[in-house]
Amino acid sequence: MKIERLTAESFRDMQKSMLKRSPDSYPAEEAVVRDIIAHVKEEGDAALFDYEERFDHVKLDRETIKVSAEEIEEAYSLIDEKLVDVIRKAIARIRRFHEEQKAKSWFITEENGMVLGQKVTAMERVGVYVPGGKAAYPSSVLMNIVPAKVAGVDEIIMCTPPGRDGKVTPTTLVAAHEAGADVIYKLGGAQAVAAMAFGTETIPKTDKITGPGNIYVALAKKAVYGFVSIDSVAGPSEITVLADETANAHHVAADLLSQAEHDQLASAVLVTTSEKLAEEVSEEIEGYLKTLSRADIIRASLDHFGHIFVAESMEEAIRTVNEIAPEHLEIAAADAFLLMPKIRNAGAIFIGHYSSEPLGDYFAGPNHVLPTNGTARFFSALSVDDFVKKSSIIYCSEDALRELSDDIITFANAEGLTAHANSVAVRFEND
Q: Residue 107's Cα: distance from chain center in Å?
């Protein structure tokens, strides 16, 4: 990886290159997605079966598009029992963490008898998209389904593309079944998103769609937002490591590569106050690339979106991290806990030399569905809150409204909304 002095110019150059990864940079794919969505809205199931045959090379109908109990049972026989046990342990940890996020309805009563409150209600039906084939990640299945279950969602449907044999990846099926998916459909791409957004004869309309996918899936989620809620328009994976001279270069290099291996658009950035560490990390990366299985993908990622910045001070390094607003941030420094409160923008923060990013991907418990492309400035990790709605509750007695009526009428008239004022005034016209 190239080592650069952290300057306004070098940072600007990095930001400019990162913008190339934005979902807004794919006009041709966006046009394709619009056509797919329109076709699914108009033709329903017929469009889904047509696209599945065209894109996934599988002939499906209303009977075979739904994963059967027998297929789920078969999936269990095809994967290692140890992996099933690990999935169950991960679910327990993820559930325990997300249980702490549950919000409760609340009410307050004022002296005049007015009752105000907030009612928390889980969504009725949620759709989860899960990639298939080589990009099958059972951990993402758990991270999307478990918080929805904890929130109390009535029905969770999952869509995932089948292989050419018409079957779903066994680990995906087992993870979905263990996490609590109610129905699983063999359906991928933008057509799956459209189906969950608008409904077809077979696929029910959902209230929200979550889950990762390729650029077509991301653009489809963006296109249907407003007709249905979504978690986010996710971009490529990214990691930033904030480090001082106490960091272990062998470990830091390994952590950077753990995200670079996702795809060629993934981003790995080291911001350090130690020039010695920067040089050692660069050397360690070259050593790892000789042994790792996805070395070609990693090298392409690092060549375009990998950066090592050497900062003059930790204060400058922290300002840079907050500007990047990374999906994953590791703080590998002697005083990591003291630095953590200074971080304003990051999806997940890993503190200390042994809090490796994959810990969060699989097993720690916090959600690994995180804001990307700098959106950690205003978005948060997927949580139980994403699967509930909060309704305001207002009860007003006659005496309480009489007490407030003059103020309400004054406010309404100031806005020129005389019908608003009248709605209160008529209740006391005989006073």
A: 31
Summarize pLDDT for 49-58 with one digit per residue, the tens. Answer: 999 999 999 9
Active site residue 251: no
DSSP character for 247? S
Which member of 52, 178, 238, 327 is catalytic? 327
From the list 263, 125, 129, the residue with the least C-alpha distance to 188 is 129
In this structure, are residues 289 and 262 in contact, taking their beta carbons and an 8 Å threshold? no
Q: Is 225 helix (H, G, I), strand (E, B) or coil?
A: strand
SS3 label, residue 134: helix
The predicted-structure confidence for 260-305, as pLDDT tens digits, reads as follows 998 888 999 999 999 999 999 999 999 999 999 999 999 999 999 9
The 306-310 sheet, strands edge to edge: 3-5, 306-310, 267-272, 238-243, 328-332, 348-351
Tokens of 430: 């005989």
| Helical axes 138-151 vs 170-179, angle rounded to 10° | 20
Position 25 pLDDT exceeds 80: no
What the block records as the tokens of 77 is 């026989």
The active-site residue out of 251, 328, 353, 368 is 328
Beta-carbon contacts of 334 under 8 Å, excluding residues fewer than 6 positions away, are 244, 246
Cα(265)–Cα(274) distance, integer angstroms: 27
Pairing of strands 388-395, 115-122: antiparallel
Report the greatest alpha carbon distance in the chain: 88
CA dist., res. 171 & res. 205, Å (int): 26
pLDDT higher than 90, residue 13: no
pLDDT at 135 over 70: no
% the chain with pLDDT above 90 = 87
Strands (E), 92-182: 106-109, 115-122, 125-129, 155-160
328 annotated active-site: yes
Cβ atoms within 10 Å of 20's Cβ, excluding its own? 10
Please, are residues 249 and 1 in contact by the beta-carbon 8 Å criterion? no
Per the CB < 8 A criterion, the answer to whether 396 and 424 are in contact is no
**Does the pLDDT value for residue 255 go beyond 80?**
yes
Kindly tell me the sign of the dihedral angle through the C-alpha atoms of 12, 18, 22, 25. positive
Distance of alpha carbon 386 from alpha carbon 392, whole angstroms: 17
Number of H helices, E strands in the chain: 17, 14
Q: What is the pLDDT of residue 97?
A: 97
Question: Using CB atoms within 10 A of its CB, is residue 331 exposed (0-12), middle (13-18) or buried (19+)?
Answer: buried
